[in-house]
Write a structure and sequence with these properties.
The chain has 353 residues and is of the alpha+beta class. It folds into 2 domains: 180 residues, no CATH class; 92 residues, Roll (Pdz3 Domain), CATH 2.30.42.10. Helix content is 50%, strand content 22%. The chain has 8 helices and 10 strands. The radius of gyration is 24 Å and the shape is globular. It starts with a helix and ends with a helix. 25% of the residues are buried.
């Protein structure tokens, strides 16, 4: 059941993304020739007043085919005939819709999550960080090494992130800003009452607040934290901390969703897990689509800026077909990457089984 729901959810995210382009294009009077969900051969089609609506066989994407998207067709309603600022809004509208649907899913889950404020409530017995020159009860973590702290979980994440035990920590204490520079803060091993040991930072945090305003704030912070996680993952990819074989596409994600749902202890937990995962995927799609890579929306916006600068200097209008060639090449490369990731997912799935 969850495999089917995951596939449907992917379809919804694609529909929302392409719907953003479609609505923005219509708002600016751009002619849309086809609005498609999926790729490959057509399964269903319906001709509207001017737009052909299609459902295609492969649930791997979709498109909103606008008149004159990569060439000057001479049509006054062509995409290339519109001002650059309108084209930029149309291109960004898909990512914006993905971010908004991700935020909506987060807001559905946040009221039931066990978040904690990044405010010190107390310390483990013997914690070395409780002192007049260090941390005190009531301190709110604001930043660690320049990174904003939204939730208590962020504290351990960014204390561990740099690989160093020395940090610059910004706190809010009694309404005043306190900065601990080069503060040595490694994990400490504590002995519990039952004789077992744990290695922690030894800080208790304040439980979350409840109410509409608090849920809206937590939801917004969670969405921003998702964006940050995605950027961090991209950084790990470029630095070599993770490799291409660690990437997952639709097959791997659907399998992960199915495993996560199977591990849920109740139907309610299963639904919350489902919404949470697809909220992250929706925000992921928004961020990835705005990267300045040919064929992606961000790449098209980047080329809008480049062509504007070139035309400003040369006083000559560039033929959009050359940009079209670059995006076509980028699309082929992206499809190749998608095939590689999908093949890798299938291999990992088979070996796991």
């Amino acid at each position: 059941m969850y495999i089917v729901l995951a596939i449907i959810a992917f379809g919804v995210l694609i529909a929302v993304h392409e719907g953003g382009h479609f609505l923005a294009a219509k708002a600016f009077g751009v002619k849309v020739n086809e609005f498609a969900l999926g790729m490959g051969p057509k399964l269903l089609k319906k001709q509207g007043k001017e737009t052909l609506y299609t459902l295609r066989a492969l649930p791997l994407g979709g498109f909103c085919a606008m008149e004159g998207e990569d060439a000057d067709t001479g049509d006054a309603r062509a995409f290339t005939a519109k001002p650059k600022w309108q084209r930029a809004i149309i291109l960004c509208a898909g990512a914006l819709m993905n971010f908004l649907i991700g935020l909506l899913l987060i807001l559905c889950v946040v009221p039931y999550t066990n978040l904690s404020e990044p405010v010190v409530a107390g310390f483990f017995d013997g914690c070395p960080y409780e002192s007049a020159d260090g941390l005190q009860a009531g301190d709110r973590f604001v930043r660690i090494d320049g990174r904003r702290i939204f939730f208590a979980d962020n504290v351990a994440t960014y204390l561990d992130r740099t690989g160093s035990d020395d940090h610059t920590i910004v706190l809010r204490r009694d309404g005043k800003r306190v900065v601990l520079r080069n503060y040595h803060m490694p994990r400490v091993t504590y002995t519990l009452d039952d004789g077992s040991t744990v290695t922690k930072f030894g800080i208790y945090f304040t439980p979350r607040q409840f109410g509409l305003a608090a849920n809206l704030r937590y939801g917004w912070y969670e969405a921003l934290d998702f964006v940050r996680v995605i950027w961090r993952s991209l950084g790990d990819l470029f630095t070599g901390a993770v490799g291409l074989r660690d990437l997952s596409g639709p097959v791997g994600i659907v399998n992960y969703v199915n495993e996560a749902e199977a591990a849920a202890t109740s139907p309610l937990e299963a639904w919350f897990t489902f919404f949470y995962i697809f909220a992250l995927i929706a925000v992921n799609l928004a961020v990835m689509n705005l990267l300045p890579i040919p064929a992606l929306d961000g790449g098209r916006v980047f080329f809008l800026l480049i062509t504007w600068l070139i035309e400003l200097v040369t006083k000559k209008k560039l033929n959009p077909k050359y940009e079209g060639y670059i995006h076509t090449a980028g699309f082929v490369l992206l499809m190749g990457l998608m095939v590689f990731v999908m093949f890798n997912d299938v291999v990992k799935l088979i070996l796991h089984k």
